[in-house]
């Protein structure tokens, strides 16, 4: 049985004070029905981690090198020093706005796993790719590329997030059937690479305009083990509503 995992991705939102206030309000209310967490901006990570007793605190990105002349970047060791154990990698906004490629996502995945952290690796197609009917090709190739040269023994720690780019921040959302079909496809790709036993243990999230009222039905799909949540994770009441709706 795979335990559901719901992580809010705050993107470039909330000051340190706002993050701390959110954690203090929400942390006591999360249940054991799932692994619950939020990914905060870098500046809020340390204080958020100090406040959280039940929520996992994740970084939104990390660099693939240990150190060096990479102005403005943050290394795995910097995250580890403040107790961060989770990192989102390859989010579509990183790919779209900051030139992330399948190769850099792979390098970051290997870096994070080799240092004992847990990656949430994002894959997903654009609207043009969805309308062209090539979702399967795109998502399988992204999945293959992300986990190239990753050892099977590391895959149990991995979380994969399927986030159709056309459903992020647009108000559009994939139907539960579409989300399930693609998540099943991702699991099949993992099975082809690492075997069915490994694939059965990997948790796969859906991300893309997830709303509290739709979370339970989403997680009833056999291959959907959680959600990577954007806007609905920014407000205390909607985050708590997700917890309550999941039971």
Could you explain the architecture of this structure?
- The protein has 11 helices and 8 strands.
- The model has no long low-confidence stretch (mean pLDDT 96).
- Strand 1, helix 1 and strand 2 form a beta-alpha-beta unit.
- By secondary structure, the protein is an alpha/beta fold.
- It starts with a strand and ends with a helix.
- It has one domain (5-246): TIM Barrel (Alpha-Beta Barrel).
- It has an 8-stranded parallel beta barrel, surrounded by 4 helices.
- The chain is 42% helix and 15% strand.
- Helix 1 (16-26) packs parallel to helix 2 and helix 7 (135-146) crosses helix 8 (176-194).
Give the helices and strands, then pairings.
Elements: E1 5-9, H1 16-26, E2 35-39, H2 42-51, E3 56-59, H3 76-81, E4 86-89, H4 92-98, H5 102-114, E5 118-123, H6 127-131, H7 135-146, E6 159-162, H8 176-194, H9 196-199, E7 203-206, H10 215-219, E8 226-229, H11 236-246
Parallel strand pairs: 1-2, 1-8, 2-3, 3-4, 4-5, 5-6, 6-7, 7-8
Helix pairs in contact: 1-2, 7-8
